[in-house]
Amino acid sequence: MSTDATRDPDRVLLGLCAFALTWAAVVFQAGGFTTSIGAGMAFLDWPLSNGSVNPPGWLTNLDMFAEHSHRLAAAKFGLILVGLAAAHALRERRREVRLLAFALVGLVVAQGGLGGLRVLLDQLNTGADHNRGGVGFGIAHALMAQLTVASLAALTLTHTRAWRRADASVPARVRSLAAAAPVALLLVMVAAAVMRQNRVTLWTTDGQGLFLPAVGEGWVWWVNALHRAGALVASVAVVGLVVACWRAGIARRLAGVAAAALALQVTLGILALGLPQNPHPRTIHVLVGAVLFSSTCCLALLCRRARPTEAR
């Protein structure tokens, strides 16, 4: 008799998870583009847009199109996750996997709520002499999106053969440090969210290099510098995790995805510096960042799941 550890993955649930991840990329692209062009307040109401699900002019006005298409894509994503949870309730035997599928519904509801508060508590709606409410909830909305997609990637991982393998092993030191790369990436994304939501992304340098901003002062300069410095530290951590997984034979394809995403992410960061008026490198930078964070989280989970071995 087969056990949960040896049974072949459920292809239906794996396919549904893969579809949900694909649609998450659409939501990220739409949301990232909306923020990149500063269209987050194209509509002052929420959840409707100018009181409608089909507001006049949204197909011809770029700001309205960006924001409303993001809302529509996000709403569909929520429905997809509800369906995914229902499918797990019917087909999945592992209790912890079912709970993760149910938790995703809660995460996407919270994500939508944060997006709504970002609009309703914006300075344009409150009339306040500051915009800490709108910016604060915008930052939380951006970070919750990353955590939601990473959780969805982890759910997808549980339906793969890599997750069910019982023979993988990594050095105890690597297993203990597996979380370092995802944590480092998350801290980089915190700085990025602060920059983007405050619209203080200083892409200008002094011409001597691509690292330190040449303009700005106080916290604005520091958050930009910390984002770039943190990216260097996170890159080292990701490379270390990828190499460890590759040597141990753990999900080498996934390790390759993380490595490719890291290389592309660095390239996009450099392009964003060189093309400050073009929103597309920054938008794709956000999307690839989600791929990098999610794949790194999955590698870390696999390392934690593997048997520890003492280094020779």
Short description:
A two-stranded parallel ribbon has the order 1-2. The protein has eleven helices and two strands.
How does this model look, in words?
With 312 residues, the chain is mostly helical. The chain folds into two domains: 7-145, no CATH class; 160-312. Helix content is 71%, strand content 2%. The chain has eleven helices and two strands, in the order ααααααβαααααβ. α1 (11-36) packs antiparallel against α5 (132-157), α1 (11-36) runs antiparallel to α11 (279-305) and α5 (132-157) crosses α11. The protein starts with 10 loop residues before the first helix and ends with a strand.
Strand order of the largest sheet: 1-2
Counted up, domains total 2
What spatial form do the alpha-carbon principal axes imply? globular
Helix content: over 70%
Largest sheet: 2 strands, parallel
- Which class of secondary structure composition applies to the elements? mainly alpha
